[in-house]
Design brief:
The protein has 325 residues and is an alpha/beta fold. It is built from 15 helices and 12 strands.
Length: 325
């Protein structure tokens, strides 16, 4: 009975994928168990630099260098990529003595990096190498050499940069995260560098989305319900906060109106309001406020300071418009 060629191809493809992932995974585990010498020194050197972190490399190493530069910049360590060939034709002028350079080359013998290396040596610009050979030109020239552990490429011919680029990329991530923690990088800092998209929305604070000032629907405790209803209508939130001496005493919602329908117009605002309402601090993450509103089946929250003074109002529609989900 003949085997199905399609089934045979599927098994071969899956076997190849597992082999590649296993080889690269083993290499990462080996690097995690024995970090390259100089890793801590590299972190301290980058922290002490007054300028930017310059990443450079060519070919596959160049692509990895670009990604590391982007990760650094988005996590509090200003960085950018300089192409080594362009550096030899004028872009060396963008690298100052306040900067620090990280050069990537698995062999450590990339010819195109020559002028960049010489420039850092001539002007005493700190140079960190990420490479695979401790005795290479790049490693010997660098102030700190982060040498990747010996590991086979996942390519069956052992030629295509696979395992080596994966290790370099992961080491770049390790540097970026270690720098984040060393700098005390907080979620609000992350939002500063990621204002757009879903991630930025999830890191937004209530204070950034709430509406305040003249938009706040506030009434005094003894305000008549006729006037209170007018305020609720004018402000467009379908609610009113009852405030005395600047402190939020209660909140009137559509539900409160329905529960007090009998004789409603003969009552005052404080008589109808729900006392000690659910509120949110300005520092709460918008995604947390959204979850709170969903769990309580409400559509808004008054935002208050530690003394329970109203600062603003956050409507669920404000969260949705900002992309908070």
């Amino acid at each position: 009975m003949q085997s199905d060629p399609k089934t045979d191809h599927t098994a071969t493809i899956q076997k190849t994928a597992r082999r590649v992932l296993t080889i690269e995974g083993d290499a990462l585990l080996a690097m995690a168990q024995t970090l390259p010498d100089g890793f801590v020194a590299a972190i301290e050197r980058i922290i002490s630099a007054k300028g930017r972190v310059i990443l450079s490399g060519i070919g596959k190493s160049g692509h990895i260098a670009r990604k590391i530069a982007a990760t650094f910049s988005s996590t509090g360590s200003p960085a950018y990529f300089v192409h080594p060939a362009e550096a030899s034709h004028g872009d060396l002028g963008t690298i100052t003595t306040s900067d620090i350079v990280i050069a990537l080359s698995n062999s450590g013998e990339t010819t195109e990096l020559g002028d960049l290396i010489a420039h850092t040596r001539r002007f005493s610009i700190p140079l960190i190498a990420i490479c695979g050979r401790p005795g290479s030109t790049l490693a010997q020239a660098a102030d700190i050499a982060l040498v990747l552990p010996a590991a086979p490429e996942a390519c069956y011919m052992g030629l295509a940069p696979t395992t080596s680029t994966t290790m370099a990329l992961a080491l770049g991530d390790a540097l970026a995260v270690a720098l984040m923690e060393r700098r005390g990088f907080e979620p609000e800092h992350f939002r500063t560098f990621h204002p757009g998209g879903r991630l930025g929305a999830r890191l937004a604070r209530v204070a950034q989305l709430m509406r305040g000032g003249e938009d706040l629907p506030l009434v005094a405790p003894q305000t008549s319900m006729a006037e209170t209803l007018l305020t609720m209508t004018q402000k467009g939130f379908g609610t009113a906060g009852v405030v005395e001496n600047g402190v939020l005493l209660g909140v009137i919602t559509d539900g409160d109106l329905r529960r007090n329908m009998a004789g409603l117009m003969d009552r005052t605002a404080i008589e109808v309001a729900t006392k000690s309402p659910l509120t949110a601090p300005a520092t709460m993450l918008a995604v947390e406020a959204m979850a709170l509103m969903n769990s309580r089946k409400i559509t808004f929250l008054f935002v208050v300071d530690p003394e329970n003074r109203p600062l603003g109002i956050l409507h669920i529609h404000d969260c949705l418009r900002a992309g908070v989900q």
